[in-house]
Amino acid sequence: MKKSFIAILFLVALTACTKDFEAENQNPYQISDEMLKQDYNLVGSPFSGMMYNLFGGQIEEDLCQDSWMGYLNTPTDFVGNVNNTTYYIRWNSYWGRVYNSVMSPSRQVIRLAKENNLPLFATWAKMIRVLSISKLTAIHGPVIYTNYGSTANSILYDKESDLYNLLFAQLDSIQTDFAANKDYKGFVKFDPSYNGSIASWMKLVNSLRLRLAMRLSKVDPALAKTQGEKALNDAAGLITTNDGNFKIGLLGNKLYLSVICFEWNDTRMGAVMESFLGGLNDGRISKYFQPPTDITLYADHPNLPYKGIRNGSYNTTKPLHVNFSMVSNDFKTAQTVRSFTAAEISFLKAEAALRGWSWTGKTDAKTYYEEGVKLSFADWGAGGVDSYLADATSKPINYIDPVDSRNNFTASSTITVAWNESDNNELKLEKIMTQKWINNYTNSLESWCDFRRTGYPKIPHVAKNDSSPDWGVIPADGWIQRMPFVNAERTGNAAAVADATTKLGGKDEIGTRLYFAPNKPNF
Amino acid sequence: MRKITILLAFLLFAGLQGAFAQKTISGKVTNADDGLAMPGVPVVIKGTTMGTTTDINGAFTLKNVPSTATTLVVSFIGMTTQEIPIGNQTVFDVVMQSGVQALGDVVVTALGIQRDKKTLTYASQQVSAADIRIAGNTNFMDGLAGKASGLDIKMSSSGAGGSTKAVLRGNKSLVGLSEPLYVVDGIPFVNNKGGQPGSYGGTDGGDGLSALNNDDIESINVLKGANASILYGSQGANGVVVITTKKGKAGKVDVSINSVTTFEQVSGLPEFQFKYGAIGGSDYSWSKTPGNYQSSYIKDFFQTGINAINSFSISGGTSRTTAYFSYSNTSAKGVLPTNTYNKHNFSFNQSTKLFSDKVTVSSNVMFSNEVSKNRPGAGYYNNPLTGLYLFARERDFQSYKDNYQIFDKDRNLYKMNWYSTEEKMNNPYWEIYNDPKLNTRYRVVASLKVSWDIAKNLRFDVRGNIDYADKLNDYRYAAAGNSVSVSPNGKWDYSKYNDKAYYTDGILTYNTKVGNFTLNALAGVSYQENILNDGMSVTNGTNSLMYPNFFTFANIPFNVMFNQSIDRVIKEGLFGNIQLGWKEMLFLDLSGRNDWASTLALTGNESYFYPAVGLTALLSNMFTLPEVISFAKVRASSSQTANEVPFNRVNPWNSIGGAGTPLGIGGINRNTQVPFTNLKPETITSTEVGAEMRFFKGRAGFEFTYYSDVSKNQFLSLTAPSGSGYSTYFVNAGKITNKGFELTVDVTPVETSDFRWNSSVNLSQNKNKIVELIASNPDYQVGADDEGFASIIKAGGSFNDIWIYEFAKNEDGKIILDSKGVPTKAGKQTLQGNANPDYVLGWNNSLNYKNFFASFLVNGKFGGVAFSKTEAFLDSYGVSKRTGDIRDAGDTMPIDAIKGTTDVTEIDPAVYYSAVGDRNKIMEPYIFKRTNIRLAQFVIGYNIPCQKLGLPLKAASVSFVGRNLFFFYKDAPYDPEQSMSTSNSMQSNEVFSMPAIRSYGFNIKVNF
Q1: Do B484 and A263 touch (CB under 8 A)?
Q2: Is residue B23 part of a domain?
Q3: What pTM did the predictor assign?
Q4: Residues 535-564 of B with CB under 8 A from A
Q5: Which of A364-373, B70-79, B242-251, B343-352 shows the lowest per-residue confidence on average (mean pLDDT)?
Q6: DSSP letter string over B202-231?
Q7: Which single residue of A118, A461, B907, B953 has CA 20 to 30 Å from A249?
Q8: DSSP β-ladder status, B359-373 and B437-455
Q9: ipTM score of complex
Q10: Which CATH number is associated with domain A36-251+465-504?
């Protein structure tokens, strides 16, 4: 017995040490922070991913604002043709993209930049956050920003009026940091848009300030004017040339639009685009879309070889609409996606002029309007801009769906392209907004903001309205105003969502108007 | 290993314990079946550890037998144990009988330790390998269905080489598979399952079990609870399937040839209509006008499959050395054309005694090679069955079959010829001819064991094992196929990886007897390192290959990532077990184990201890029972098991992927998981009580076990709150209980010299309850809607609760129609039942009349629900028989519905079925009962009386075998035991998976 006892002791001694355990539990195919310190990848490398995630994919863009704004529509009868495009919310995932792929990594970048004494990377990360959150709040209204990263049980949302003030303040501080480091070269290796040019980022800061200021022009005209004029007068300038457009490099990824259209056959030209671009003889149509192979589809206007699908279309079965106009083949090789263009700045200036804002070097609305159209044509590579701007007769056309007449609509806009100084402000605004909308193709969220704020362009209602008390009812004469708060938050952060609903000032439904889009006259 | 050598050296010097001698007894052991001597049979003095084994001539000698010795125990696997009073007798002739009522048997338990079954404090059930093999299953687990109580087995519908899902006593882990540990000759056998199909498609990646040669299996012992398996550590928490392989026997050369050929046929296709086609080139066959259309192309698409398993083994040995060699070939062709499976198995084992027989060195090498081609998948994408079933009826299928590809002059290559651009519709012949899928597996398992009898009652065993598997999955999809799933130049899904498992243990066993007490004690250590899924994968998806139909790394476009994966864990264990017996009446079993797991590094919880205790009382030895009761035993045991967590969860690093840097693809995805440094192991507490009784001299008996398992500290991955700064976090939470019983009853109603009938019933029940998941969030659930079908784990429910969208109904139960008269779907999914059965039944009968033998097995599953999305699609496309019949019968169907405030009693079937069918719609009509009762196995055969006929053979038999021949009862339109996936969440779901299969064939067995 004694010997076996000793043997047992030996067995105990046999138990190897556990010091290798930590290394064993690391995945050798993952990269450590230590490794990433080389070339400053630790703070720089997350940027391309964060910027890529400023845009969503199929369910966040194509089946939401791309369709709601009439740019594109799906031929597919997703979920029995009852889905986001027909105002019944099936997908609500941009929120998760922002928090998981922008806010969370940028929080780490801000911390690591501080730890590694590279403060300008923190500034840059904050800029990406402002870009991202300014989009998210335009979708939901109140969002989590100030309290982001809190360990509290209930993480409260920011009220929109507070949030915009905070974003403006952050843009101030970002601009101050950038201005003090104009020659900084640290971003060059990591910047998929501006090749690390601080001057370009400073222009984007001003441009974003102008965009957000204009968003508030109805609800808080005084703040809008102050911030707008600040942006317009800042020495760093705005995005004024197409070279300076803020385009996000896809860096090897395909443009979602291309995948959805060409590979999945899940998106096609929007009927509203056919009505406007076709009716106004817009040269950009061939840069945006391509003619269908089946010529009978556009028998209603044989000289306009395009056919789009109505927003909120009745799609009985996919084969019915799948042969309608695809997007232009140019998108197959797109390397970037437009996020902020010089043309948009011109249209913002045109509206600012209408609204009586003043800034150094200001001319007039007509000049800015025409400059915007010209910049847009140049940017998209379209021809015939001069005759287009002179056209005072062509108007949007009515739409006929050759396979399902329930989708037909009569154009409600009667505008022409040519500027007429004697038009009233409302009509001028419609022209500006319509051109801004055409230019913003593939950057639909901004157009949805403008539409909710101004009511322009005059797009039809959805053909098929499946809104219900589940997510809120959109009346027959209304349009979708927002996305509901996400389910995970409704269940996991319920008290804060209740609080956010109070801050929203209406029910957590898709028909509740957001702060920046009050239901009142434009002027 | 160096330390073990030191230990060995130390133990070499340990002296032999002295013994007090009284007398010498000797004898010979023979087999009642053939009268031949039986070598290698253990002969022990009851109540002691004193014993020996018979030599090549079946002879044994025991010296120094104490005068206190009363009974001689002779036991051998598969034979009835003999207990012979010693008295004054010194020479014994022992005739061993084949043990059907194996209650007295020695069984192989944890770590390969042999124990007398009657002393066990927990439930186990031995199944003879012959029972499993006879019907020609390519996977031995399939053959176990119905033959051991409490075992719920589902086979993948992917055919030969496919995976299985076996669960003992219910699902215990939320994220793990709850499948038992497989142990071959005492060493854990890696069963690493490959990827499984989902709703969108995929192919069964197989599992590790198919690498075994069924003909190498001597016996299988199923240890049902965690109680049985504490010695394996956490891996045994879900029960253990202990497999003992065949070995050479001393003095007996045996050459065995076994050949099983079975034919497979589709036995249960969905019911179709072929009368009504589509209008205007639509994909949907909803025309109201009947036509005369092709109707046999679906059934003609499938072929008769053939499975041929031919195996050969040779074994033999001397009193010092035994050896066994086998080769087996499995060659199969599936019912799906182009699907083949080929497997080669080689096994060699030997055992040699050295140093005056004090040291036994044994080794074992197994090699297998499996090649599967075009293994059937399931789901929407790249599945030949979708296009085949949904084909618009008015079209000419023959032309699509003959011209499944057509030449595309624009591209100068062949493209798919199909009428629909739908994502799920492909030309079925294009799919099987132009989208080849290859799976290859190479596996080597090699082990070495040294046993050293230090003293008469002290033994030291040390073992080492290397298990290496090399796996390739190479799926190619031709250019110009379906644009949704395949790039214009083709798609390549390639993965190549290996599994490596190293295992070594050292165990010291000590047996003694002091007065009325017997002691069996062991202590051991084990070290295990598993490195699984170590390899790489790449798929170009819909990113176009640079050149069409060429599948190499060089042809991968720049924007596709090559991924590497690994899963690894080191586990070290220290364990001990004591079995204390008193007067052959009471046995107390105590175990304890401490594990150290690398996956818990940095948590402070990497070392954890868990105990087990059990007690057995042999009532028949304690009391004088009525003569009708020949044996009675009660037992109880309780154990705790702790389970390590998955690899790399505590503090992962960052990954490269997604949008890149300005230099190209591959940015840094920062790890946004909350570091989880207080992670704890999962625990399972398992308690069972049982009784075993035999009557009428053992002709009838039962074994009953009631168990109750509680799983806690489940490892759960949660989405972090949006505002928390992280994307995911992990918690230890939850409480799952599994309670139920296992009952085995066996009876031999007739036993004469010519005729014998044995009947046994295995019945079990399991009740699973999710008591709690996240206490602070009662709505938290694991699992989510998957295309209209949801398998949900949620507090208050059970594992695999099935949720489906029902019709929207008003308070009177009327279906609410929308303004266009279309049935509407309820806003939320409703619980339909649970995927798992309430009761699992197997009823096995074997009959012997002279040289004829027969057996039949009836398997039943009772309770549970099954879901068929295939039927939903067939309805919405108007191709199911239902939709044809209703059109025949006047094209209107009754409905109890309301539109606005108007009652509606009739509806157009096209409107109705378009609303309910397809994916993600109203799935209520497609829920069925899982309950099914089948003739699972039927065998009839003849033993050729070789001696009588003067044939130069030891034994030979021929038999006819059949499997899944027919159903006595089945509600679902498919076979719910053939699963499209053997993962957790797709249980009881069927999305264009292979139809039910019936097999029959013959078996020839010859022994020289």
Answers
A1: yes
A2: no
A3: 0.84
A4: 542-543, 558-559, 563-564
A5: B70-79
A6: -B----SGGGS-GGGEEEEEEE-SGGGGGG
A7: A118
A8: antiparallel
A9: 0.81
A10: 1.25.40.390
